[in-house]
Amino acid sequence: MSDNKKYEFMDTEYPPGKLLVCPQCREYISYIDIETFPNCPFCNFHLARDPELEDFILQPLVIRWIRQFGNHGF
Ligand SMILES: [Zn+2]
């Protein structure tokens, strides 16, 4: 692919996961902030729907499912 990515992400340890870097104001946005409405909570920049953004929003859910079902021997 290319390094011309639409969105920038930053890995975090607490909580483990990723934060989205707002393309406009450079603030770090949690997936919780954009789960319900796809705007930057700091500058109100509209975050266009994008496969990368979808993955970002869904990733914590996927991790939680893996943990839950993993513990039950799935
Ligand atoms: Zn912003």
Would you kindly provide a written description of the structure presented here, covering whatever features stand out?
This protein is an alpha+beta fold. The protein has one domain. It contains two helices and three strands; from the N terminus they run βββαα. The protein has helices at residues 31-35, 51-71; strands at residues 8-12, 17-21, 28-29. Strands 1-2-3 form a three-stranded antiparallel β-sheet. Strand 2 (17-21) and strand 3 form a beta hairpin. The termini are far apart.
Short description:
This protein has 74 residues and is an alpha+beta fold.
Question: In what range is the share of β-strand residues?
Answer: 15-25%
Ligands in the structure? zinc ion
Enumerate how many helices there are, as a single number.
Answer: 2
Q: Could you report the average pLDDT, rounded to the nearest whole number?
A: 83
What structural class results from the helix and strand content? alpha+beta
Supply the key terms.
three-stranded antiparallel β-sheet, binds zinc ion, 16% strand, alpha+beta, 74 residues
Q: What's the helix and strand layout?
A:
Elements: E1 8-12, E2 17-21, E3 28-29, H1 31-35, H2 51-71
The structure holds zinc ion (ZN).
